[in-house]
Amino acid sequence: MVYTPEIDRMNMRGVLSKADTITYAMGQDIGKYKGLRIISHGGADAGYRSFFVRFPDQRFSVNVLSNLASFDPGGMSFKIADIYLKDKEVESGLKKEKTESKIPTENKEIKINHDVLVSYCGQYEWQPGIFVSISLENDNLVVSAPELPKTPMIAVSATEFDVKAVSAKVTFILDSGKVSKMKVQMNGEEVIAMKIPDFDPTKTNLSEYTGDFYSEELSTAYTMVLDSGKLIARHFRTGDVLLVLNKPDQFSGNKWYLRNVMFTRDSSGKITGCNVSGGRVRNLKFEKAN
Q1: What pLDDT does 5 receive?
Q2: For residues 108 and 100, is the Cβ–Cβ distance under 8 A?
Q3: Which of 112, 119, 174, 188 has the greatest number of C-beta atoms within 10 Å?
Q4: Phi, psi of 91, deg, nearest 5
Q5: How far, in Å, CA of 5 to CA of 157, rounded?
Q6: Are the beta carbons of 180 and 194 closer than 8 angstroms?
Q7: DSSP assignment, residue 11?
Q8: Which run of H or of E encompasses 235?
Q9: What is the pLDDT of residues 133-164, one digit of tens each?
Q10: Given this model, what pLDDT does residue 186 score?
Q11: Using 50, 70 and 90 to split pLDDT, how confident is the model at 88?
């Protein structure tokens, strides 16, 4: 392939205003998998899922398409790559870093003190407005996320857990003796999710979030209602969206287009509207009708 300035720019990782370099470039994600350079991108809409990954130095690519919403095309892509790249000479570097990107099969489950497990429970912010929940069931940790049902976590050390269903490793990190975040290693990538300070959502008066909220940009409105003690965003075309309180004034929805709803207040504390984020939309403004 002949690389042009345009292609080179597509591979340039973005730099944030705080000078932090991110993995996302111009339409592609730039990273490494088991020591090998990769360029990838995933896609999802309705029940369809896809993932495309290139190993440019090995001149090898994998493209996985699916029409099942619960399918993991990214995980399958890397499993395929493991098969086709295992006999390559460059694989020597891959084998050296194998334990960094894939959960060791020799890990054995151990028992953790109940109070320690309780300290790990709570909400963790995976991405802005996207939360991962860690809870305790029958003295075992389980993890759940917007597209991940409750999934068991297997303790392999006092702070490390395997999530075999998605080939992930979770490490809880303590600051000053308290759990502040968790590190997740999955598909050759590492994500840090901060723990949300504990608060009791049952003490929140959900009725103050009810009413009609209008977006001038979309020329449409959602009606926030209470139904069986739960906050629902109701629309005559899209139906009901369940909103779950994660932290003060911030809710996550069970539909991608209302993934995060942050209510806004005036100086007197009265709710004046909300900002909605989801998919490729961030902070879409809705004003509350008087």
Answers
A1: 72
A2: no
A3: 188
A4: -65, -20
A5: 48
A6: yes
A7: T
A8: strand 230-235
A9: 999 998 899 998 876 788 899 999 999 999 88
A10: 79
A11: low
Q: Which domains does the chain have, with CATH numbers?
A: 5-101 (no CATH), 114-195 (2.40.128.50), 201-288 (2.40.128.50)
CB contact burial 117-128 (16+ within 10 A = b; e otherwise): beebebbbbbee
Percent of the chain with pLDDT over 70: 90
pLDDT value at residue 107: 60
Q: Which residue has the tokens 């099942």?
A: 68
Whole-angstrom CA distances from 271 to 94, 209, 223, 248 are: 54, 7, 14, 12
From the list 52, 47, 41, 44, the residue with the least C-alpha distance to 67 is: 47
CB 120 within 8 A of CB 188: no
Taking only the tens place, the pLDDT of each residue in 59-70 is 999 999 999 877
Neighbours of 221 (CB within 10 A): 16
- 3-state secondary structure at position 45: strand
pTM, to two decimals = 0.56
How many residues in the chain?
290
Quick one: pLDDT at residue 249?
A: 93
- Decide if 286 contacts 215 (C-beta within 8 A): yes
Contacts by residues 29-32 (CB-CB < 8 Å, ≥ 24 positions apart): 31/188, 31/189, 32/188
User: Residue 105's pLDDT band (boundaries 50, 70, 90)?
Assistant: very low
The answer to whether residues 84 and 72 touch, using CB atoms and an 8 Å cutoff, is no
Residue 6, φ and ψ in degrees, nearest 5: -65, -40
Taking the C-alpha atoms of residue 100 and residue 67, their distance in angstroms, rounded to an integer, is 31
Distance, CA of 132 to CA of 121 (rounded, Å): 10
